[in-house]
Amino acid sequence: AQSVTQLGSHVSVSEGALVLLRCNYSSSVPPYLFWYVQYPNQGLQLLLKYTSAATLVKGINGFEAEFKKSETSFHLTKPSAHMSDAAEYFCAVRGFDSGSRLTFGEGTQLTVNP
Amino acid sequence: DAGVIQSPRHEVTEMGQEVTLRCKPISGHNSLFWYRQTMMRGLELLIYFNNNVPIDDSGMPEDRFSAKMPNASFSTLKIQPSEPRDSAVYFCASSPSGGINSPLHFGNGTRLTVT
To answer: For B103, which DSSP code?
Structure first.
């Protein structure tokens, strides 16, 4: 079975500062990893996904994530935060041993201060 | 592409009443998922379908919950009888295939309040 752990349920940054949201995974088989974003009163929207083609994955809105097998991590970053980035972010994992099941982390609420 | 469409957006009902949540997946998607989101438990997978067939319903909390997918363009999640602890946001999502690298596309959810 696979799982993800997001370190920090709340992260606060200043506008223009680096955004770093942490995600560590546990999987007995090579995982497929995803980051989703949820704005208030909306569903989840895919930011990016890792599918083993490249370890550095670029997504929408200037976000990117790097898959590090040695650290079992898939942290999400953005060089410069915008006010519009304030939302909740979810890391998720899917593995061959889980069929189609997508397992989400607990989520990280990002606040961007002016 | 209209995306995944869920109805109603909000539902307020009294304990003991039957509640039916509806979902229209994206046309051509053959996998459909029902999730529940609460502050305490986060996002929980309740059930998913491939080609209209339920594959895994191990997340359905109790017999009070049931889900159907009579055709490729429609699914329902029913709670009967409803209880206050069922209050949550229920999301439907669809995916182009059962492949594990296929992302899920989510609807905007139904916020259920049971009083």
So the answer is: P
